[in-house]
Description:
Layout: H1 4-22, H2 61-72, E1 81-86, E2 92-96, H3 109-119, E3 124-132, E4 144-149, H4 171-180, E5 186-192, H5 208-211, H6 240-254, E6 259-264, E7 272-281, H7 282-292, H8 295-308, H9 315-328, H10 352-363, H11 371-375, E8 403-409, E9 412-420, E10 426-433, H12 441-453, E11 464-465, E12 471-472
Parallel strand pairs: 4-5, 5-6
Antiparallel strand pairs: 1-2, 1-10, 3-4, 3-7, 8-9, 9-10, 11-12
Helix pairs in contact: 2-12, 3-7, 3-8, 3-9, 7-8, 8-9
Amino acid sequence: MTSAAPVARIGALTALAGALLAGSLSAGGATGGPVAPGAGPARAGAAVLAGLDPAAPTPQPAAVAARLAGPLGDPVLAGPAAFVVDALTGRVLLDNRARTPAVPASTLKTAVATAALVTFPDTRLRTSVLYSPPPGGTGLAPGGTLWLVGGGDPTLTASPETGGYPALARLADLVAQVKAAGIISVARVVGDASLFVGPDRAPGWRDNYVTDGDVAPVSALELDAGRSAPGAEGPRNPIPAAAATAAFAGALAAAGIPVGAVDLGRAEAGARRVAAVDSPPVRVLVERMLTESDNDLAESLGRLVALRRGLPASFAGAARAVTDTVTELGIPTTGMALNDVSGLSTTDLIAPATLVALLRAAVIPTRPALRTVLTGLPVAGFSGTLNDRYATADTAPGAGDVRAKTGTLRNVSSLAGQLVDADGRLLLFAFLSPAEEGGGTKAALDRVAAALAGCGCPAPAPAAQGAQGAPTVPTR
Length: 476
């Protein structure tokens, strides 16, 4: 006979997915248990996530600890930090060094995602082309200068394809607009990446990040994030603004607009805008950033948050802006120390409890814009950086259930996200292992999450004592 528990769980997962897509995620009042630090109690009288029963049994801390003791004790994980809470009430179910700052790797992207979503969720990042006439010239006289001005959009693409999701800003559209404006030749094409300032690589970044293709040197003007072609793997261009400008000049020439010199510099005051393309809304970029663990988007969004807060658009400015923004949300940031906002720096520090509080801020109903943090999380065995995981017998219980941001550096493997347990309870978790990627650390972390996903974990029934002190079988 089919067990009722798996059937109920499938229904809960289906409802969870539907509610996330419909934007109806919310939580009810707390039950009086401990609340995750900084997350605050849920709003009184708020509707519960449709399909998840607020009366479903809450896992008991002792039972959760017992169930996860084996997976967390796997030597390959080298003694990971762990934090698990009930999403509805905020009750702490497992706390293993959860308030001790640790290297987060890319789980840190939940912080910049949160900051961007509360700052400008519907903003689009604009790349512009400005025109300056030649000395003594007027209007659109031949021989002038075109300025390609970056707006911090690393997803600007050289791809000729149109449509699709998300519909990215295209270099070809800029060229078409320039031609439609009546410009027939230019003496110079100059790339302007001046929106961002400071070093283009962060403290704690390894020398091989750019050559291995993990990230481009941070620039306000990038084409396909410094890749040699749309979607290409391998080394990124060490000067992405120069590469983008050269590609633009080449596309102009191919369209019949001759170009003289190609250079980098700041656009002249008074230059006239003749073309512009916009990125998808920031909320869509955030979703892409989380699903694909896009380092270039993370660093650009952090700098743009800094600009909104009147701070320099630099690594230091982005780190301060993100930290200040999440602190203002009531999220605990004690011990949080950042050298970037993508999590690539091996010297970043954040507490597991902070990561879970970021996730819970997206669950409770007071800030619906943050739900994109949840919809952007990769789905185990299905999407993004979890696409090729959870395929073994010991991790299969988490497939399609676990939604989590991954993180991997040479000195950390991490996982932070959400799942629905066997009783239909939404749980939030963060597991940070100080182990290198090699040696099966990803698989070991997946076993921890899968064990939690299979958890009903009620309090163990006490053994009743008979008249002579012998244990008796509990009545069912």
